[in-house]
UniProtKB/TrEMBL annotation:
<dbReference type="InterPro" id="IPR016161">
    <property type="entry name" value="Ald_DH/histidinol_DH"/>
</dbReference>
<dbReference type="InterPro" id="IPR015590">
    <property type="entry name" value="Aldehyde_DH_dom"/>
</dbReference>
<feature type="domain" description="Aldehyde dehydrogenase">
    <location>
        <begin position="13"/>
        <end position="470"/>
    </location>
</feature>
<dbReference type="GO" id="GO:0004029">
    <property type="term" value="F:aldehyde dehydrogenase (NAD+) activity"/>
</dbReference>
<dbReference type="InterPro" id="IPR016162">
    <property type="entry name" value="Ald_DH_N"/>
</dbReference>
<dbReference type="InterPro" id="IPR016160">
    <property type="entry name" value="Ald_DH_CS_CYS"/>
</dbReference>
<keyword id="KW-0560">Oxidoreductase</keyword>
<comment type="similarity">
    <text>Belongs to the aldehyde dehydrogenase family.</text>
</comment>
<dbReference type="Pfam" id="PF00171">
    <property type="entry name" value="Aldedh"/>
</dbReference>
<protein>
    <recommendedName>
        <fullName>aldehyde dehydrogenase (NAD(+))</fullName>
        <ecNumber>1.2.1.3</ecNumber>
    </recommendedName>
</protein>
<keyword id="KW-0558">Oxidation</keyword>
<dbReference type="InterPro" id="IPR016163">
    <property type="entry name" value="Ald_DH_C"/>
</dbReference>
Length: 474
């Protein structure tokens, strides 16, 4: 935690120009374990100036050199993977097993994929007699959340480096441990001074300053819809590019031909992974009305089997949620579900009985949920699953699409062709068939209120490129 009082700007760890700090709270114990420096507009100016000065030289770097740079970053990241997993577990409460098996490796996967894209990517193409080329957009502001910290940081930083952009990263002030470790990795790998800069701070100060800064060419933001709207409005005056990955309320359609004994427990675990703190979590379970009693029993049994406990215990499936504010918000929405008349199958308000402290939430399942209820429409961002019944396939698709969001969807069927046919009718940027995992080479992004501008893989790299037409090329 030695870097929490410093920012990484222009290739060095520097003292903030602001004196503001915030407490770092361990979500498992509620104890204050450190103080985090919070940046100011002056700190942002300093970082942006460094990034602007570094841009011409870095943009001109040969592709082969850029690939080698990403390979060095990956090598060092791999060596420090254990440190990264422990930092993530401590800062946001992810069980150490999840942090080791998924959270930390996701960062490495994006670095490796960015290098893979460069190996096969051609920035030039001839369209008729015109040369169409792609060039780095410039200085980018990267604003990331706390729930999958390394996944979100690396899926922005790695493609930005691959494209030839320079950047200023503002990680979440609620998860400030993994970002400085990532900065150390980039520094050791030899990322040129000024190419990558790190400024901690709040969204209202540092995020707002980055969004409106005239020398920022692009904003890539992941977070809530409310904050995303503020970023977009602040960026509008300078007409900078804005990419947003926002919220979700993903449906999980179990069609009537699935093996419910397997599909229902898998659906419960998918929803409660990372304590439900995933934008693409399948939080609405759509099931045939005629099988509801069987499905309720399976879902309750699976939820009650999941271990909630210390992130440091290998047996813990769920740790705490990230903060007191997040805990209280989830509790309020559970209370709203009860007040609206949904049937509480298990869980409910308060901590699990065996845990006296920490921001732990009971794995909670509601049945008898109407899709118009607040718990079916609002992104809870916690371990709360809503079971909604349907009469036929057409109604299931209509319910799935009846949401302001469109990030992800899930479909299970014994017939893969049927599942694919249903998938094509879902208004979402991603659909998982029969529990398929996401692909780091494929685009990650959503429709409607879930944002704009895909991340990951080739599409992620292209997000950081401008397109130029050169007419009359020989």
């Amino acid at each position: 935690m030695s870097r929490l009082d410093r920012f990484y700007i222009d290739g060095a760890w520097v003292e903030p120009r602001s004196t503001a700090v915030t407490s770092l709270v361990d979500p498992a114990s509620e104890a204050v374990i450190g103080q985090v420096a919070l940046g100011s507009e002056a700190d942002v100016d300093r970082a942006v100036t460094a990034a602007r000065a570094a841009f011409p030289g870095f943009a001109a770097m040969e592709t082969a050199e850029r690939i080698q740079l990403l390979e060095r970053i990956a090598e060092i990241y791999r060596r420090r993977m254990g440190e990264m997993a422990h930092a993530i577990s401590l800062e946001m409460g992810a069980p150490i097993r999840l942090a080791t098996k998924a959270q930390a490796p996701a960062g490495l996967a994006h670095i490796l994929e960015a290098a893979n894209v460069l190996r096969r990517y051609n920035r030039d193409e001839m369209i008729g007699k015109t040369l169409v080329t792609r060039e780095p957009i410039g200085v980018c502001a990267l604003i990331t959340p706390w729930n999958w910290p390394m996944n979100q940081i690396a899926c922005k930083v790695a493609p930005a480096l691959a494209a030839g952009c320079t950047m200023v990263l503002k990680p979440s002030e609620f998860a400030p441990l993994s970002a400085p470790l990532f900065a150390e990795i980039l520094d050791e790998a030899g990322v040129p001074a000024g190419v990558f800069n790190l400024v901690n701070g709040t969204g209202t100060v540092v995020g707002a300053a980055l969004s409106r800064h005239p020398d920022i060419d692009m904003i890539s933001f992941t977070g809530s819809n409310r904050a995303g709207a503020l970023v977009a409005k602040a960026a509008a005056d300078s007409a900078k590019r804005v990419h947003q990955e926002l919220g979700g309320k993903s449906p999980n359609l179990l069609l009537d031909d699935v093996d419910f004994a397997k599909a229902v427990p898998a659906a419960v675990r998918a929803c409660f992974l990372n304590s439900g703190q995933s934008c693409n979590a399948p939080t609405r379970l759509l099931v045939p009305r005629t099988r509801l009693a069987e499905i309720e029993a399976l879902a309750r049994a699976e939820a009650e089997s999941l271990m909630v406990g210390s992130p440091l215990h290998e047996s813990s499936f769920m740790g705490p949620v990230v903060s007191a504010r997040q805990f209280e918000r989830i509790q309020a929405l559970i209370e709203a579900g009860i007040a609206e008349g949904a049937k509480l199958l298990c869980g409910g308000v308060g901590r699990p009985e065996h845990l006296a402290t920490g921001f732990y939430v009971k794995p909670t399942i509601f049945s008898g949920v109407d899709n118009a209820m607040s718990i079916a429409q609002e992104e809870i961002f916690g371990p709360v699953l809503c079971i909604i019944t349907y009469e036929n396939e057409e109604e299931a698709i209509a319910i799935a699409n009846d949401t302001p969001y469109g990030l992800s969807s899930y479909v299970s069927s014994a017939d893969p062709q049927r599942a694919r046919r249903v998938a094509r009718q879902l208004r979402a940027g991603m659909v998982h068939i029969n529990g398929a995992f996401a692909d780091f080479a494929a685009p990650f992004g959503g429709y409607k209120a879930s944002g704009n501008g895909p991340e990951w893989g080739r599409h992620g790299v292209e997000s950081y490129l401008e397109v130029k037409s050169i007419f009359g090329h020989a």
